[in-house]
Each structure stands twice: as C-alpha cells, then as structure tokens.
Amino acid sequence: VGEGQISNVYKTEVELLQTACEKMYGTPTVPFTFVVVTKRISTRFFAPNSGTIKNPQPGTVVDTVVTDPTKYDFFLVSQYVRQGTVNPTHYNVIEDTLKLPPDIMQRLTFKLTHMYY
C-alpha cells in the first residue's frame, strides 16, 4: 500500500472491520490494532562500524527523526543480508484501540515477521 492510499485503506478496511465487530459482538469498541505494511521503500539505514558503515542488525527499529511525528509509524529491519544493503520495512499503525506500548508493538511485529514460512 502506498502512502497516498492509507486514507482509502482506513475508510474501507478499518471501518468494515469495526462494522463487522459491532455486528458480531454487539459493540463497536472491540480493541484491535490495524497496521499497514510497506515493503517497497527507498529508505536505507546504516550502522557505524569502526570508521566504516554496515547494515543494521535484524530487529533494529527506527521510530524517530525520519518518521512522521504526526503519525504512529516505524521502520523495522527484520532480516540479515550477506551481500548488499538491507531493506527495512515501513509500518503505519492507522488504528490502535488495543493501545500496546510502542516497544511491545515493535517487538511483536519483529517476531511476527519470522512466522511467514
């Protein structure tokens, strides 16, 4: 999902989920967190290494400086690469009624990236 499509995702996906929860449970206040994941980004991060640079370690989270201070978003490096530059993934939390602390959400997200296969 591109940056320009996030409001459309909110209007369609999140609002439909809220409506379905209200029909199923009788209340629109079922807590959940809805995260939009963007993999095709041009942002790259590097870690200092004795006067040179290297790829950041898997599990590295960047949630300040290059993120939007008006949004709940973060970048996560979830894999190790032997050659080339690691590609971080951008996560936008567009609905958060579950209210997990950011550190817990980021750690959970990192662990969930290893459940794909």
TrEMBL record:
Domain Piwi: 1-117
GO terms of molecular function: nucleic acid binding
Superkingdom: Eukaryota
Stored PROSITE patterns: PIWI
InterPro entries noted in UniProt: Piwi, RNaseH-like_sf, RNaseH_sf
SUPFAM superfamilies the UniProt entry points to: Ribonuclease H-like
Protein name: Piwi-like protein 1
Gene name tied to this protein: PIWIL1_0
